[in-house]
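so my prof wants the structure for this chain in the tokens format not the other one, which i didnt know existed until like an hour ago. anyway here's the sequence
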Amino acid sequence: MRRAGCVAMLLFFSLCGYAQVDFKKIDRDFFLGVNAQQNITALEEMLKGVNDSKSRAEVYWRLSRNYLIVGEGQKDKESRRATFAKGVDYAQAGIKADNRNPRCYMWHCANTGRWCQTKSLMKQASSVPVMVKDLEIIIDSLGVIDYSEAWNALAELYFHHPFKSDDAAVNFMRRAIETIPAGETRISCYLFFANMLLKRDFSRAQRVKEIEQSAGKFKAAKKSSIERYSYYCGKLGYEYKPVWSAKYISIISDKEEAASVVKYAMSLYENSSNRGKNDTDSYKELQKLNEKINK
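here's what i got, hopefully its the right format
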């Protein structure tokens, strides 16, 4: 009877459109930076047996993510462009299947960004509003304010855009680090944050002024979480101590905080048993940055 029951249950799931796919392995492989092409094959095969829209969206955004990884490993521009375009297409399919799945928008944004890097400067500029819109949907429309990758992407867009605020970018990156999922190190976030601080290079007095001016603006920004968190240091206040520093953010300069961030991130990596490929690559860059800071 038990065997008959199991067979009936498997048949039920098959009829309902569920397929047997190990998302945990696929997600783990992404973290480790391995098997992207093999996982594309597995996910595309899975689509044949998945009928409900929410489950299809889960497959689509993972396909989009893996196409981005494959594209980053390709050498010639045309191959990269075609691969990232495929990632964009799968993300769009995910949005169509479930327009409330934030990861579909995230990987649409990421692939769009990589795709536009293979195009002219004019095309790159025209793609920025598309990427910002994806992130606005995630954070403002869907109300997902604890998605580290979305804040990270927003910080990068603002920091590299000539008409966006570096101060907002720094605040977004603080939020990105704050929302890193438990059990993950995301060393690249700390690396980028340290570089942002070094480039902005605020003195202690400038940081105090920024906190003072941002406090009221954070409270006043009611409609948009993106606008509100662009003034995040105002919410944190003068007596906020990040985990990498024994001092308040109001009594250290950007350069001093950057040095603390680098040391903390290096220690985090060295003491972690859960290191991804991106973590290892970022750690090597942190070592170089640490030498540069301490010269």
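also thought this was worth mentioning. The chain has 15 helices and no strands.
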